[in-house]
Specification:
Elements lengths: L3 E10 L6 H4 L5 H4 L3 H6 L2 E6 L23 H7 L4 E3 L9 H14 L3 E3 L1 E2 L2 H4 L3 E5 L2 E9 L12 E2 L4 H12 L4 E7 L10 H13 L3 E5 L4 E7 L2 E7 L1 E3 L12 E10 L6 E9 L12 H16 L4 H14 L1 H8 L4 H9 L3 H4 L2 H12 L1 H19 L2
The protein binds fe (ii) ion (FE2).
Fe (ii) ion (FE2) binds next to loops.
Length: 387
């Protein structure tokens, strides 16, 4: 039996938008274009499926857009030789339990493996354990909490939760060769990790994860070799219809190629395969040699920041402060007239004094207070807006 396995990981995929016809085509070349041969030749390919595949028209109430794809799209995925999908993300519950159940059903019908979401925490947190050639591999998906995470008695995405850290350790002790974690985390459009995301990824690597691939940022970010593990902080979209405000980085991505050897002295090797989704054109394109070099050089340059923790902290603080006005106004009430009056009359300090800021900070930072505030808001939304 072959004692190596070449695994290909694609980033965020939403199978909707203007190119719906391509997303439902039996022939996957129209959608995947130049990278189709890569997907087909890998020993195992997987993606982050960032939308339910469903016929449901009932969106959940949430902040931000609700995404979905047609159930037929699973054939496009299957015919591109994509063998598994990660569902641990912030859109898999956009059409509620029905959307999730239909997605799971169509995946099962087409023999596409899945992980990262389920009817409850137990199901959602189940890793995908599989054998590729002679290599025993496991994949786990976890997502930051955007309100639709699985719990003891609720369906949803697998959260970043201490119980999962124990599973990572147990998996590594179970005779597995390699473990890959897909982490749906990070700030959209920001190519670096926050200091806390960096610590989390290091911790997962310390627990035994061989590769930790962060997705969700919609841009090619940065990466580091941490001990024997690879950590990627953003690989960009694989296919995600652009929105009017989406920046050019939305259209670029890299496939992460992991080559595993049964021989631990050789271990895991990695490679990044860049591509672009040109707007107004169909199909993913490989870049010219020079553009590919540019993209990989930029990837490399950004990654150098990870080796200087003080710079990483400064970059994060700069990003946070650039959102000051927006976040403060959102916290103070989103009513435009109120905001206008506060700023025009220069009376913000009378409404929001030091005590108010300290109180708000405590509610956001303290786990118990945050849980209480979340429950109160859930209840309020239900009473006031439930149709
Ligand atoms: Fe996301």
């Amino acid at each position: 039996m072959v004692d190596t396995a070449r695994i290909l990981i694609g980033g965020d995929v939403c199978l909707g938008g203007r190119q719906q016809v391509l997303c439902m085509a039996e022939t996957p070349r129209g959608l995947f274009g130049d990278i189709l041969p890569e997907l087909e030749s890998a020993d195992f390919s997987l993606i982050n499926l960032e939308c339910p595949l469903t016929s449901s028209r009932k969106e959940v109430r949430k902040s931000g857009p609700c995404l979905k794809g047609h159930t037929e799209s699973i054939k496009t995925i299957r015919n591109a030789q994509i063998r598994a999908v990660n569902l641990a993300n912030n859109h898999i519950m956009d059409y509620g339990l029905k959307g999730l159940c239909e997605t799971i059903e169509v995946c099962k019908n087409e023999n596409v493996e899945l992980f990262g979401a389920g009817a409850n925490f137990e199901e959602a947190s189940k890793p995908l354990v599989t054998q590729v050639n002679s290599i025993r591999l496991a994949f786990m998906g976890m997502a930051e909490n955007e309100g639709f995470f699985a719990s003891t008695n609720r369906s949803g995405a697998n959260p970043i939760d201490v119980r999962n850290f124990l599973k990572v350790m147990e998996l590594k002790k179970s005779g597995l060769d390699y473990l890959v974690v897909l982490l749906h985390a990070g700030k959209e459009y920001y190519p670096l990790p926050s200091p806390s995301l960096l610590h989390l990824c290091h911790f997962l690597a310390d627990l035994g994860a061989d590769a930790i691939i962060c997705q969700h940022s919609h841009c090619v970010g940065s990466y580091e070799a941490y001990g024997d593990s690879l950590i990627v902080y953003g690989q960009g979209n694989l296919y995600f219809p652009p929105f009017s405000f989406s920046p050019p980085s939305w259209d670029q991505g890299v496939l992460v190629e992991l080559s595993f050897s049964k021989n631990k002295a050789i271990g895991m090797k990695y490679k990044f395969i860049p591509f672009v989704n040109p707007r107004g054109e169909t199909g993913i394109k490989r870049l010219s040699e020079i553009d590919e070099r540019h993209l990989l050089d930029d990837f490399e340059k950004r990654s150098a920041v990870l080796r200087d923790y003080a710079s990483l902290e400064r970059a994060w603080e700069t990003l946070c402060l650039s959102h000051s006005e927006k976040v403060l106004y959102q916290l103070m009430g989103s009513n435009r007239i109120f905001r206008y009056l506060l700023s025009k009359l220069n009376v913000r300090r009378y409404f929001f004094d030091e005590e108010w800021y300290l109180w708000l900070k405590n509610i956001i930072q303290c786990e118990s207070h945050r849980d209480i505030a979340g429950k109160i808001l859930d209840n309020h939304l239900k009473k006031r807006f439930e149709r």
